[in-house]
Amino acid sequence: MVDLGTILMGLGDAFHPMVLVAIVTGVALSQFVGALPGVGPVIVMAIAIPYTLTFEPLVGIAFLVGSMKGGSIGGAIPAIILNTPGTPDTAMTTLDGHPMARKGQAKKALKMATWSSVTGDTVSDLVLITVAAPLAFFALRMGPVEIFALMVLAFAVISALSGRSLSKALIAAALGIFVSLIGTDPDYGLPRLTFGNFELFDGVPQVPVAIGVLVLSEIVLRLAGVGRRSQSVIDMDASADPTDDTLSFREYWACRFVMLRGAFFGTMVGALPGIGSSAAASMSYVSAKAAAKDASSFGKGDIRGVASVESANSAVAGANLIPLLALGIPGSVTAALVLSAFMVHGIQPGPLIFENQGRLIYGLFGAMMIANVVNLGLGLVGWRIWVRIARAPETMIFASAIILCIVGSTVISGGTFGLAILLGFTVLGVLMKVYDYPVIVFIIAFFLGPRLERSLGQTLSLLTGDLTNIVQFPVAIALLAISVVVLAVFFIRNRRDQDRHSA
């Protein structure tokens, strides 16, 4: 376990001026981008990864943490004002946030969204700090066979929960693993799938792939739909009642159980790979409505609806890092991008990271808590600016993002080769999204592919080529059995859903 001195030094590093500047910048940019309907913080994080190379690891990762946290508050603004979710996980915010705005309570709804987001996020971070290190300690007791079985289980859960079609999710996972195999064979040192291109000997560069599949493809699709959406505009000063513009402590405190319930759902969902914050928001909203004595007000402008959704979707952010730091398995796109940033800086997340990089990890924990305070402050002060940004022309924003994508991919790969990778995987991302193949499954499989291959090789060596020897590893057998059950359950569920729709 990490000693107290390392923990204190790490927490002290979080207050370095450069780290603080990175946090504030990341939160501000993410709130800014989140306020643009349908964009989200993933774009900020993916574009920023190449530029973090010029800074110390903690500074760059602190920027990504700030970007991860600010998106939810920014995404709630167009959901409340324009009835258009800024991010997918704020879709449920429109149910009560926009009716509140139509009643002249837009400012109250925005303030409640900010406070509940930070509340849920803080609870989730405390769970991360408390749970991650002990979980990593137990993970160290697992051998290569158990690690391989655990990764198979993670792929099964992600594939089952990340799309409506299990077959498409499995195809996306297989494609991600296939792309990760391009490069030099780790066992024999021979190039494979490079087609004589020496630039592929080190594998396909991760950052251009992530930017192309996640960001540039989304920008292309968004630009294709520019001008097709009509937006309703709310007058922020429509109400003459001053209480409609403020959020009292009594109103906040009255929602304490709703927010704690949302934080619980967000933390539990975030700790499981592949489910996502949208599911957490839905579960929290349904639970809050079921527990309310006067549930009829939900969907008509009930402040508890806003609190339940925002506390849940924000709590997912911190919990997403639990499997990443403890096991080296990212559970979401944002966690996969944080993993990419770690790897760009030569750091491998997993059970040993607390022992080898304890100071960095507790600096990260300190940065996360500071980011919550910054997120609250900027959210309460900056919403007036973000409301105007929500109405900004998308073409101007996306044009700037495209330039940053191209420059970042060129810088990280050292030339035009990165640009070619970026464009190729942009096309792949567009096709996957158009045909409803889950991009999150592809990108996580791509990042985990080398580790999965290494674990498989070690497993086969320990089993001496005889698969029946796996009976000596009961934990691995249990994990593999759970994987089969997960896939079978969701396959049966999907078949029933298809039969129901066809009937």
Automatic annotation (TrEMBL):
Transmembrane residue ranges: 20-49, 61-82, 126-158, 165-183, 203-221, 258-276, 321-348, 360-385, 397-422, 434-450, 470-492
Name of one Pfam family that matches: TctA
Superkingdom classification of source: Bacteria
Keywords assigned by UniProt, alphabetized: Membrane, Transmembrane, Transmembrane helix
Xref: InterPro entries: DUF112_TM
Keyword field contains Transmembrane: yes
Domain DUF112: 20-443
PANTHER family, per the entry: TRICARBOXYLIC TRANSPORT PROTEIN (PTHR35342)
Protein name: Tripartite tricarboxylate transporter permease
Organism the protein comes from: Tropicimonas omnivorans
Lineage, top ranks: Bacteria, Pseudomonadati, Pseudomonadota, Alphaproteobacteria, Rhodobacterales
